[in-house]
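EI: anyone free to look at a 413-residue chain?
SC: sure, send it
EI:
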Amino acid sequence: MSLIKPFRGIRPAPGRAGEVAAPPYDVLSADEARERAARKPWSFLHVSKAEIDLPTDIDHYSPQVYAKSRENYLRMFAEGVLALDEAPCYYAYRLVMGEHAQTGLVAAASVADYDTNRIRKHEFTRPDKEDDRVRQIEALNAETGPVLLAHPDSPEVDAILAQATSGEPDADVTASDGIRHMIWVIRDAAVLQRLTFLFDAMPALYIADGHHRSAAASRVAAARHAKNPHHTGAEDYNYFLSVIFPHRQMRIMDYNRVVRDLNGLSTMGFLARLTERFVVSICAPRYRPSQRGEFSLYLPGQWYRLAIHPHLIPHDDPVARLDVSLLSDNLLGPVLGIKDLRRDKRIDFVGGIRGLEELERRVDSGEMAAAFALHATDMEDLMSVADAGEVMPPKSTWFEPKLADGLVSHAID
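SC: here you go
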């Protein structure tokens, strides 16, 4: 079977995309989603976070939530807000955030290639989050949250997408955060065939964001395969919804850390401990690290630059050489006693989209004792980790801009 294939997309009816498009389900709390969807009856948040239409004390993993999601989803079809394309297509998807733009392909990606690691992972998943996505897919009989993938350089794919996006888009939405989302439908049979061939020639694709969604799709496919005595491998459940961008176009922002205390150390004692592994210097306010191996530290009222001693960087280890690993292995663990980033309540994480001002705010408010700003992880680092079959530390990458939910979905029946 092919690495990717065209599919009959579920899309907003002409002129309705602006009413439907919504932020990804996992970037908003229930309260934030409820506020965003207020007075917007066709926002896809009513499908992706259906708890907003139920009592506020509802368990977000309750069967009622998935039933409500299905009810809202079917109503959008019944009212003509959503429709299923007549024939399998690919879709070009362009994201524009300020001066940054990236153009990728919406496609159905092979679960079999995910299972054999040709579609490569770099994160662990949590069973409870996988379970949630499995229940959502089964309730809707569709995948509505796309997996963000990266592909190696392919000038011909770039050229095909440039041609496909030369006309007016089929959907054009500027979200409340200012990010523009554009979709073009690709129907030409020869172009569909060529794109499929070009992707089949690629050695691998890389998951950037959506590890729980892809893992859930694999579980659903395995369950349906087991129940289908006539399984061929061509069924729609054998593929999952994805948007695939050239890796060089993708933008990873810094993913920063804030900690609640200095592990019993005074400010001067803490800084003294840091000099064992870092060159520590006072720097300008809101200093953003400019290179790998460099960090900035904010303590109340003062920013510092931390440059790790070069001999501490294990260049031959794709995980240990990451800045997120260097900070953990040389500071968070040995100095602050924070060794389990997934479970330790003394640490929190701040996406770079919120800016360094958010780090100052959290420290100056007294909520946190210190903040660390990191240099953003490179896509090449992510791919190296995935190629080595390793996983990155928690909260290593923050991708911006993010895909919208609701613009293209994938039925799996």
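EI: The chain has two domains: 4-251+400-411, 255-375.
SC: 👍
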